[in-house]
Amino acid sequence: MKALMPVEEALQRLLSAAELLGSESVALEAADGRVLAAPVIARRTTPGADVSAMDGYAVRAGDATLDAVLRVTGESAAGRPFAGTVTPGSAVRIFTGAVMPEGADAVVIQEDTKREGDAVTVTEAATIGRHIRRAGGDFATGDTLLPAGHRLRARDLALAASADVAELAVIRRPRVGLLSTGDELVRPGAGAAAHNVILSNIYSVGALARRAGAEVADLGILPDTMAATQEGVHAALASGIDVLVTTGGASVGDHDLVAPALTAQGVELAVHKIALRPGKPLMFGRSSAGTLVVGLPGNPVSAHVCALLFLVPLLRALQGEAVAPKPALKAARLGVDLKANDHRMDFMRAAIVGEEDGVPVVRPVPVQDSSMLRVLARADVLLVRPPNAPAALAGEPCQILPLED
């Protein structure tokens, strides 16, 4: 019997096939979650001038000693700077964000003064530079604010906007097509009979793909005939998508037709069957025209876990995301004894049951059946068991993979 491909080798084959997609320019409001194709360069200095960090009075620190009485000669507000100069013995009323007037080198906050008409008494002495935000304190014109390969977050959009950047160069979204197979499948709400299975994979896999930045199209359900499967695969490959994702039909039973249909349509499979639980039947290949194909198992838990482990990193790699696209494992401790593992890498659905020294304590759920979605929905993490891992005791270190939330 041919040995199953290790998970790490399968993932490496997927990622090595990922070629960076082209770029496009989008407005800031459309850039959330996109990956930068070029760095964001500041087009202005911020703050553009020395400004006040507090409401109070702009003064010459040498004049604003304890109990000094200064003459208020004007006002500086955000967007309306004072046009004159702070002269000896004078002060200018100033508000947060307002430009510091010429001649002033400190701000006395409002709480440290007493105002009577045009006279203000200083109740705490000023010091040079106090409560002033210096010009360029955040960034200066020409500074690189965000690097290429960075996936944009809400706070990044605010940074780009403050740098006077209205449009961003981003990597084009990967176009993903989801193709389901199986005579037993019906859509939610269609009135399923006892022998039917309600289609669920496209919703979980599609959501993971969208969160990874992809545009997702539902390409329908194929019946279990070779002619229909080949016709569906042919149409999908000709549709202009970057990644075809199939669910179901990936094993070797009489009704598992996806692998031979892909091969017949010119897809060269680099991965077929891996040493993974759940998800052994996973497939990966490339068509003669360059479309990448990921064949997921039909069992919904297996499909979700494989999409998390393989499809999401592939989509990130296609977008050139600078953060390592491989799944990031985290340290944890076992909350229960575990038996030795076999030759397949195991991703067990598990719950976080406590914490020790800042490290989560995890316990696998009792039932690990790859068809049970309620178990997956209630799990907090996947507990990772390496191939041939020896028996382990409660309290020993382990690794976990966070689920998508």
Automatic annotation (TrEMBL):
Keywords: Magnesium, Metal-binding, Molybdenum, Molybdenum cofactor biosynthesis, Transferase
CDD domains: MoeA
Cofactors required: Mg(2+)
Involved pathway(s): Cofactor biosynthesis; molybdopterin biosynthesis
Superkingdom of source: Bacteria
GO CC list: cytosol
Keyword Protein biosynthesis found: no
PROSITE patterns: MOCF_BIOSYNTHESIS_2
PANTHER family: GEPHYRIN, MOLYBDOPTERIN BIOSYNTHESIS PROTEIN
Family assignment from sequence similarity: Belongs to the MoeA family.
The protein's name in its UniProt record: Molybdopterin molybdenumtransferase
